[in-house]
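The instructor's notes for this session suggest beginning with a concrete chain rather than abstract definitions. Hand out the sequence below and ask the class to guess, before any prediction is shown, which regions might be ordered.
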Amino acid sequence: MVDGSDNDPVTLFSDMAVALDHLGPLDPVVLDRLGASGATVHSLVGRLLAAAAERATPVRVVLDDAHRITDRTCLDALAELIVRLPPGGQLVVVSRLAVGLPLPRWRAQGAILEIGMDELAFDADETAKMLHQFGMELTTDQIDAIHQKSEGWPAGIYLAATASRKSGAVVSAAPSGGDRYIAEYLRAEVLQPLDSPTMAFLRRTAILERLSGPICDAVADVHDAARTLELLARTNHLVMPLDERGAWYRLHTLLREHLLADLARGEPAIVRELHERASLWFQGHGQIDSAIDHAFAAGDTDRAARLFGGVVMELHYSGRTATARAILDRFDHHQLQEHPWMATLGAISAMFSGEVEVADRMEAIVDHSTFDGRPPDGSASFESLRATMRVFRGRGGVSGMRTNADIAVEAEPPSSVFRGWALNCSALASMAVGDGVRADRDFVGAVAAARAAEASEDEQLALAGRAMLAIASGDWVRARSLTTDADAVIRSSHLDAYALTVWTRVASARVAIHGADLAGARHGLATAASLRPLLTQAMPWFSVRSLLELAHAHLELADAAGARAAVRQAEGILMTRRDLGILAEEIRTFRRQLQGLPDLAGGASALTTAELRVLAFLPLHLSFREIGERLGVKPGTIKTHALSVYGKLGANSRSQAVAVAIAAGLIGGSLPEIW
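After discussion, reveal the predicted structure:
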């Protein structure tokens, strides 16, 4: 059974893996990898397929209420899973509404069996016959109106006809539980036999999409909800069980609409309290998404913010960034100003995703807001959290980075889960002002603090930063040891797509070059290049520093084309931010080194950021038009970029380009051939 929390690809695929685990224990490593930070659509599909492959017999997965999946990334991942199912495997999608899957393509291929509304719904003739049975002699236009508005749904036609016969008027609109005639029918035919306590129970629990004994006890303030639900399900076809054990139920849509309207009319003062009770229950049972939903329904955005703050780091570290972003997007501008620490987290999330406009918008809210007390996300203060954001945003140039880093380090005590993050910011600020000794000292502290807090992202960045400093000082033995440790953190925590791993990739490549391992170096640089689209002016100093290091590594491999691609991207950022200390002069010096070197047109390293963004979608079963919709550009532009990718990778087709990209490390993992 799909619910709102499954609008996060990590959650959706983890839930499917748990279902497979019920058929027989899965390798715990598979379940762990599905919940990894930085998991991509590509990797999630591969990991779930690996789990399905452990079954001795073909697997059939049923997704009920699939219309609740609206997130585009989830739908893309689900489509990929469907087209890659092993022989004998089946995925059954049950939905009340159209699901955003590529059904037309699959129909043309004869790859699906559809039993949808068209098969179940009445046509115009069947609608006319039902209405005629009610003694209703209607014109063709009237019948067509009822049929069109009800979409041929038999129950809707029946209720519309019943209401029309009782009222003596023609009902031409789609049935609704709040309509006068439908409400009269439900009261007279469905609810009248119920006693007052049962009616009150149904009315008050109608705020819930799904009903169970425990939650209904809490919301309706009763003690026998499970028995009441069981009895209602046996005697009332509009109360329907959702599982064979009778643990969960739901109300028919029309009945629920009617009860909610009745609740709003009869007990408006209690509606907020009911949602508050539901929020408390869901919070106590670890279902924070639903707890936040009911907090919003209660109009209690303060509570919703506190709930979000309590889980935001868990969502981040478990890879459920889509869930965190969706919750954050529910708060309007005014509400974010009241809870500006959330805007700070939104800015940080956008920085790591390369989303400049979102980061700018969130930072503007932060700049014009104040907040007293300690945020519920675990940071010491709003000022501390804001200071770390400003370090990465490069506020006030390199001197401003140093000032803000000092604020964060002073505020975050050794016991804070943000201690490692603050020390990393301090180390980056020290690098920006040329103080390598202090930078290394802060990175050492960040490693220790991150390990204590089990913050693998912070640990990885600190190890990579120390490796970069070791390379700069010529200490290749220490650099190799540190990059090995950083790479181990990436692999164990599955941080493959995490923006801040770019330093580990570049440092590993430069260590490999020093050791004459040119093949390993090229693979490391290709992996780093796949992260280049995330390096934007959203975090200017880190992005330019990373691109400059990437350019140095390419030049050490005599790859002038790759070096120029990285430098051009860095120069684009410097055009908008000229207060990044010595980086501008370093870029100019490096540009002079490139003068006179041959610039070969081909090669993976020469891919532009736009081409890298398109390349990330090529393994997926999406057309150029569909890729364009995801990236917000015209299909013709996507085709142009794709053809350029093929040429630079020396490929003659999309499938060959994908294969070359996977082998080069530009795309992680591997999947069966599909093109």
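Then share the key points. Residues 670-675 have pLDDT under 50 and may be disordered. The chain is about 65% helix and 5% strand.
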